[in-house]
Request: fold
Amino acid sequence: MIHQYKLGQYNIVLDVASGAVHAVDPMAYDIIALFEEKDRDEVLCEIAGKHTASKEDIAACYDQVAALKASGQLFAPDTFAESAGVLKEKTAGVVKALCLHIAHTCNLNCAYCFASQGKYNGERSVMSYEVGKRALDFLVENSGTRRNLEVDFFGGEPLMNFDVVKKLVAYARSIEKEKNKNFRFTLTTNGLLIDDDVIDFANREMSNVVLSLDGRKEIHDRYRVDYAGNGSWERIVPKFRKLVEARGGKNYYMRGTFTHENPDFLEDIKTMLDLGFTELSMEPVVCAAGDPAELTKEDLPVVMDQYEKLAALMLERDKEGKPFTFYHYMIDLEGGPCIYKRISGCGSGTEYMAVTPWGDLYPCHQFVGDEAFRLGDIWKGVTSPETQKQFADCNVYARPDCRDCWARLYCSGGCAANAYHATGSVRGVYRYGCELFKKRMECAIMVAVDRALRE
Amino acid sequence: MEHIKTIVTRNLCESAKNGGCGECQTSCQSACKTSCGIANQQCEKESK
Reply:
């Protein structure tokens, strides 16, 4: 299977199964489109009627396409379906990442929050050191031979329980050598409680820091308000700037959410750039159907256009020597994930779990609060194997809708939580999300092609 | 005349032979938290 598209100045052909990417001229583009449907003479004849090239040149182009097919770089067959369960079988029972819900409370009251203002449809709560420590032990005990362990401090607002965060990091560091593990911590914060102590700690201990900023002040302050209804932009931006300046090049993401209020989110990305931030992520809102923040059908073409303009802006800024990163356009064509990773799905409920403040385990942070998806707890482990099985069986080939999609080896079947909320099944497909994802991949690959050809 | 420029990419069919160590980052950990994409993940295996 191939996927062909034109974007920017490029005609791009992606060979889905091999992962090969080709930038081609218009004639090769047309030959490739006909190649599997017609025989050589028919293709040459049709192309001669459309392109003003010599017969020899058309034939040479056809032969280049044929050579790519012969070498497995075009029309390669997808033979991966039977390997879909292999990685999960090989790693059954291994947990390598936890999302620690360190605080089910928040000092902001954002109406669009998927976590219902940090409370996840429950009572306000913070994680104790004892629960957090047990969660880290649970992770180490269940991580098998896996060395790199990821722990996210998530909420709610994790800095509302900062002392416990610090103690947990100290505990993890005290055991990692003896256990032969390498903890990679991430902190996700709305920024209100950032001070010099937080900056020093985060820049020393956190592999990544995710800073929530929606971009333009009026957009940010539309949703990201405190309990008195005051916007937070003015208070957090100076703190974010100070933290990022002190970070010395370590990973961070300025992460925004866009909603029905700002499908023209490129303006928000430009605001982030103007503020001096270069590591950016902008996510479509996740909310209940019918919520005023929800992206509509009418927003879709606007958002698609914004993604294309964002790709163009990236290339412009590259040329000006002012490059920036957009999380969803990061794609490493040479060193990216192997096929097992690409077909196994995101790992939620198996290698990745969320831990509530009281120690319950859920398949991921987006299922927390939905009792039907409770997997067990950090003391007894997984006690609902039938719930876990739904996730263990989840892979790109388990979703009938994904089998014929060109983007299946880039999205790995998509987000189980989005699928569940859209269709009632973790094996469903959230179509709106698919449209956005495919556009992002087309843009990401185009940017990668441009960069590769400039080198 | 060169009609096709092939970008250097990891051959996914080949990766079936020696991939699957599982050391790479969990997909939605650390950044987006609301969607899934594995394209932006790095392979952690030293000998690919």
Q: What stands out?
A: The mean pLDDT of chain A is 94. Chain A has two domains: 2-77, 89-455. Residues 2-77 of chain A form one domain.
